[in-house]
Predict the 3D structure of the following.
Amino acid sequence: MLQARLQHQQQRRQPMKILIFLHGTTIMHRSGIGHTRAERVQQCLAHDPTVLQYAMYVPIGQAVAKIAGWQAQGAEIAYLSSHRLPEDVAADQAVLERYGFPQGPVFFRREGETYQEIVARVLPDVLIEDDCESIGGAAKIIAPQLGPVLQQSIASIVVPEFAGIDELPDDSAAFVANRNAG
């Protein structure tokens, strides 16, 4: 069934769909401003109080411009929140609006739902997430936990937590080209 959905989607889809994780990948706690990536991780591990002030989160680096560039190339942008409560997701949406992130739906886990289930529902061409260093590392990364059909169908990009996405290609087509070459 999943294979059939993927084939149908690839045949009909024109724009590339990019699903981008928010927390630690594109936005961060306010006290991380002016600190190194490693210091930001330590702030999380030390339970810096601003880590829980979701409405005060800020973009990491030039995330807004990078994503806007992909959208300008025709990419469809969607975001993935770590939150489960609608009020926390609303805070994420407010941060995205405040800083001018390109519009796109914000997906989040509902009761009993996993990130993998969201990815299977959204079926992005590209999944961008961080390495989850401050919350358990590799065991928490979404992409390796996807089934083989999704792993073959989705270009997965994992960046260091709190390093941002500035170093990713400006040309969104490079994500799929790199997957097809590998």
About this structure: Residues 86-98 form the longest helix (13 residues). The chain has one domain: 2-181.
